[in-house]
Amino acid sequence: MKITVLGSGGFGYPLAFCDCEYCAEARKLKGKNIRKRASILINDEMLVDLTPDAQTSMNMYDKDMSKVDYLLQTHTHLDHFDLNLFITLDYKYAIKKENKLNLVCSKLCLDDIQQKLLMYEKMNLFDAEYLKKIKLATNVLNHGESLDFEKYQIKAIHCLHHKEIGTQNYLIKSEGKTLLYATDTPPITEQAINELAGEKIDCIFLDESFGVNDYMFAHLNIKGFCEYVDTLKTNDLLSENVLVYATHLTHDGNPLHDELQKIFDEYGYFVAYDGMEIEI
Ligand SMILES: [Zn+2]
Ligand SMILES: [Zn+2]
Ligand SMILES: [Zn+2]
Questions:
Q1: Which residues pair with 158 in a beta bridge?
Q2: CA 168 to ligand 3 centroid distance, Å
Q3: What single-letter DSSP state applies at residue 274?
Q4: Quick check: bond before 187 cis, omega within 30?
Q5: What is the CATH number of the domain that holds 73?
């Protein structure tokens, strides 16, 4: 499974209107310190989260959004879902569209997307004829449920990031490898542990929003991040050589890349960065 990091920041790093020490330094140093909004691309064909940066990112890293067959949406917070990009699925915009896009999200998330769409376009995601016309298939997958595509097995995993809009994380299995994409998320729930029972995770991309700060809410800091991974370990859910990556990094507690990686070296974990590509 090839994983490309399209973005590793929470709300973007540096933050648009912020001039704190980290943001100022990131603007100067650039490179791995510039973080677009968090999303990954799997095997060039499965996108997790249609962020406002997804299209820019794909162009930067020589990927092609028109070839994406699957879109897994974790939730609709503005740093994860871009209405402008979504609208261009409509035939008025995408005048030639060969690929069918499979959207996977919770019922609450789909309802929320539909609600947001109504402000701009007469797109009806519950009209089968219309969906056929724009080559979009909607697949409702609520936490605890699994869905099989040809090459992929997807399971939605419970999380309490923002219950009302149907936030969930995803376990993605392909070619004998298992990936857990868990951002955004606060500490792991009992429910999530039950849903992950029997799995052996080879790679994790996990929320690490608040770095060295001693607080966390709806997201994780470094302490919460390590506790999350420890809980997976305690429940025998990790493969022996599991790769653990921190993502969704914000300027609020996370120092620049090299310094942050030094902190994670102690645990044997990695800090994701934009454009990073790995094979698991
Ligand atoms: Zn977020
Ligand atoms: Zn800042
Ligand atoms: Zn969020």
A1: 168
A2: 10
A3: T
A4: no
A5: 3.60.15.10
Structural domain contains residue 42: yes
* 0.85 exceeded by pTM: yes
* Measured distance CA(228)–CA(134) in Å, rounded: 40
Which amino acid does the sequence have at 115? Q
Does residue 278 lie within any of the structural domains?
no
Is 240 domain-assigned? yes
Q: What is the pLDDT along the chain (280 residues), one digit of tens a residue?
A: 999 999 999 999 999 999 999 999 999 999 999 999 999 999 999 999 999 999 999 999 999 999 999 999 999 999 999 999 999 999 889 889 889 999 999 999 999 999 999 888 789 999 999 999 999 999 999 999 999 999 999 999 999 999 888 899 999 999 999 999 999 999 999 999 999 999 999 999 999 999 999 999 999 999 999 999 999 999 999 999 999 999 999 999 999 999 999 999 999 999 999 999 999 9
198: containing domain: 2-273
- Calculate how far, in angstroms, residue 218's C-alpha sits from the geometric centre of ligand 3: 8
Q: How far is the centre of ligand 1, averaged over its atoms, from the C-alpha of 30 (Å)?
A: 21
Q: Report cis status (omega within 30 of 0) of the bond before 14.
A: yes
Distance 11 CA to ligand 1 centre (A): 6
Query: From the CA of 182, how far away is ligand 1's center (Å)?
Result: 11
58: which residues sit within 8 A by CB, 6+ positions away? Answer: 6, 41, 64, 65
Contact residues for 31 (Cβ-Cβ < 8 A; gap 6+): 257
| Ligand at shortest distance from the CA of 9 | 1
* Number of structural domains the chain divides into: 1
Assigned domain for 57 exists = yes
